[in-house]
Amino acid sequence: MGHGGMACAQALRRAPVDVLVVDRHNYHTFQPLLYQVATAGLDVENITQPARHILRTQANADFRLATVTGVAPDGRALTTADGDAIPFDALVLAAGATTATFGVPGADEHAFPLKSATEALALRSHILERFEAASADPALVDAGALTVAVVGGGATGVETAGALSELFQCVLAKDFPHLDVSRARVVLVEGGPALMEAYDDDLRDYTRRALERRGVEVRLGAQAARVAPDGVALADGTWVAAHTVIWAAGVKAVPLAGALGLEQTRGGRLIVDDRLRVPGRENLYVVGDLAGATDADGRLYPQVAQVAIQQGRYVARAITRAVGRGGPPPEPFVYRDPGMMATIGRNAAILQLASGFKLRGWLAWLGWLLVHVVALVGFRNRTAVLWSWLYNYWTYDRGPRLILTARPPADDADAPEGAAPVAARTAGVAAE
Amino acid sequence: MGHGGMACAQALRRAPVDVLVVDRHNYHTFQPLLYQVATAGLDVENITQPARHILRTQANADFRLATVTGVAPDGRALTTADGDAIPFDALVLAAGATTATFGVPGADEHAFPLKSATEALALRSHILERFEAASADPALVDAGALTVAVVGGGATGVETAGALSELFQCVLAKDFPHLDVSRARVVLVEGGPALMEAYDDDLRDYTRRALERRGVEVRLGAQAARVAPDGVALADGTWVAAHTVIWAAGVKAVPLAGALGLEQTRGGRLIVDDRLRVPGRENLYVVGDLAGATDADGRLYPQVAQVAIQQGRYVARAITRAVGRGGPPPEPFVYRDPGMMATIGRNAAILQLASGFKLRGWLAWLGWLLVHVVALVGFRNRTAVLWSWLYNYWTYDRGPRLILTARPPADDADAPEGAAPVAARTAGVAAE
Hints:
homodimer; alpha+beta; FAD/NAD(P)-binding domain; 6-stranded mixed beta sheet; 4-stranded parallel beta sheet; globular
């Protein structure tokens, strides 16, 4: 259950409908903090929340653990991987996005994505396992065992690269006293001319300087051309020997989007009208990363949590009014951009509001911490994350450096990608 | 790294030797609390601690991630699964125990063991997945989807059964409002005439009553004869329909014990002399669950953490003296029994000291909590567990109800069982 589906389900709390959330995972993942799980800063269990816990106090909501494969031909039921059909009156598709590797050879096989809890754990385990291997055989350092190449200079890439450099210097250097951890490298590869392209120039420059001060090697205008288990080849012929390659260079709609037989944008998002409905399908809504909604200038909205949350709430309002409560159909959806923020490391973050207000450095970092603690789902998670961050900050230590599984379990890797639609059925209409 | 290996390595802190801890996991697991991970009470990352973190401040210690397969023919090196040999002057075998199913048909394939972190996660995921399945298809309740059979009425079985009944009644009943969770059953199957056979009669009776008050069905004198995916057949012909069968009925030495070609007890422990050395092998020590050490009456010591810790420290002392520090060789090992304690649920625990002092109820429960918080490894874990327990107690809620993986990852299931020996090499002697 992602941000959009959760926001929609919760906003339907007082609507006269039955809400059924269908997801192939039984938990919500707070995606903006996945990179902290991958870099051993936070426990995976503190940035996730059981879906049923979230819906617990909502009398009109239920949950179904199932992998959605499509919509039945009559357009009134979901089909699932286990063969069951789940009927609905209205459907909100909120299945999100997955990693896009744009056909770069080897990227699907060898690069580590960072879009799910299991992927974050697999990445953490792999990095630590490579350090252990180099500790047993120091010759592996030359081969790139301690080097991580991060492909993509957006928020995920920047935040991951910054956190990795701190993990190496503050934590693993002490964990591996007999290994020359100063030779561990973080190489951030960005195809465009700057990092964090959504931000203003001064913040982009600050980001680059802050990363480089932390020892991250920033390569701008560098395209990944091929990924192998032991490194990444750039388009200019450079070879970066790196036993860990993280792919943070793009997302695409989940495969489910294609299975629906609906019109798609480039990138696979589902084309929707200005009320987030699939054209010609009055009872089919799309929110979040899966929605091909555009602003007044025809530009697709960014695939970030805030857009998903606002769209989820908007669709909840539309459904509520469609069943005769709360007034006339809402005006077309407009995204209210609250601004953006990203963290680079200790005392270093950037913040840029839609109003033009900008901030960088430790105050931005403190703001980032507070916003993310508040945005987390659940009291237990908030306190646990706050405590972990205080601990990490005071001690320069990190938490869970466990090698739990080297690769995601097969059932996760093989299953069709995420599906977090909310099926809203008008009360008294759905046959139980 | 278990309790014995860790205690031994740490007690060698000031000895003039190089210590190398070899383990196939890069973390220590606090086994006494695994059942709380399996029952969603604690995060797995809070009862484990990276081995390198534990050894961090110990200048003469290092860690090696490797699966030990045996000892080289010359008796001076470990052999490992990846082909490397690890030389030693003295070896401390502390590889622990694994689940013993005593040839009961189906137990290895279908029953869930609870001896490792990944096994605890697999069990948690399976129980929750069965609740989800029953939620989608209520007919599964009759078939046993909500029933857990726990085989074995010792501490692990009792603590797991008690925690499960509270998980069902306090948490899952709220998580699954449309499912009749009152039909969820916990059946505790014990072959002997009483639960907790190590305790006095009054505490055994209290344990049974406390469990039954919590809704656990206790079956004494009941032997598991066959385990299937959907239940367990008892020796008297009774069939307990249960989609989850937990095997807490016994342990045996890890397979490594057999691979060493040394003399073994029934149960596979390695026979040692009264100084915990393998007879005729002056430089080979065994501690913990793997050690076939006996008390003055010739009885094998119980396979519990306290024995392992005391043996680990004893062997560290013996090694220190063998290299010429700290006096003559120590007297034969004698276990100083500090007593036993086990918890049944909220405000219910039993405690029995060697002196004969006994306690039960909420004061014993508070004592149990404090002892376990203090015994946990690491400040971060202690505070996190304490906080989780306070939260769970106040709110009647639990934490991480995530279905992360349905079965342990293949690499874990296939690998030879645990190996946590400490190889101590006298300084200046070991060739690097």
